[in-house]
Design a protein that fits this description.
Blueprint: H1 2-8, H2 10-25, H3 32-43, H4 58-72, H5 78-89, H6 95-110, H7 117-133, H8 145-166, H9 171-176, H10 184-202
Helix pairs in contact: 2-3, 3-7, 3-8, 4-5, 6-7, 6-8, 7-8, 8-10
Length: 203
């Protein structure tokens, strides 16, 4: 039943799921590109996978439009575009917000097993932003490469587990069972508390 529901959506989800399949092929090898790809899976998911964003207030919409008009009138330059691009994204879900909505599918059912999962995914996006945009993080990712691995595992777990929950998978029943840790989900579940504690020490 779960597989049938999962396959029903495959055409829409093909691009995002193919990124997950690519990540899985790395197995126990972790590189920066794997982390970036794991974050990008959420950006190319179908729009219907996320809750609708609340409309902007009339005041904010007015000021956004005025700012866009003012910057569009300027000669084209990288600096001008670096302002126009974020203005165009106002009112659209950010990457963190997209991932949080998928996290909620998991924590609504088994939140006690994965406390502060949103904290981890937010930090994962900050780490991704460092490697993509150079935005400084809260600690040195190169020195603490084990955290980059944790972030990658977290994004991959959230993506796949939420996808299966959408298809009807009973994650709460899975939590009740033991694990041999032969599957990435089991490894993630068993190691989560210790890895979260290490992250919080750094923060």
């Amino acid at each position: 039943r779960v597989l049938a529901h999962w396959l029903e959506r495959h055409d829409e989800w093909r691009d995002a799921r193919s990124r997950y399949a690519t990540a899985s092929a790395y197995q126990n090898r972790y590189e920066t590109d794997r982390l970036v790809g794991a974050a990008n899976m959420f950006d190319i998911m179908p729009v219907a996978a996320f809750p609708a964003v609340a409309p902007l207030s009339p005041e904010l919409e007015k000021e956004r439009d005025a700012a866009r008009k003012a910057f569009k009138a300027l000669p084209s330059s990288p600096e001008r575009n670096s302002v126009l691009n974020p203005l165009g994204r106002i009112g659209k879900p950010t990457l963190k917000r997209k991932i949080r909505s998928r996290v909620k599918l998991i924590t609504d059912l088994v939140g006690a097993q994965f406390p502060e999962l949103e904290l981890v995914t937010d930090q994962a996006v900050d780490c991704r932003n460092f490697y993509v945009h150079g935005t400084p993080g809260k600690f040195d990712y190169g020195t603490h490469s084990d955290q980059t691995t944790f972030f990658t595992d977290t994004l991959e777990f959230v993506f796949a587990a939420a996808d299966l929950i959408d298809a009807g998978w009973d994650i709460a029943e899975w939590i009740k069972e033991g694990t041999t840790m032969s599957h990435p989900f089991g490894q993630y579940r068993v190691g989560y508390a210790g890895r979260l504690a290490e992250l919080k020490k750094l923060l």
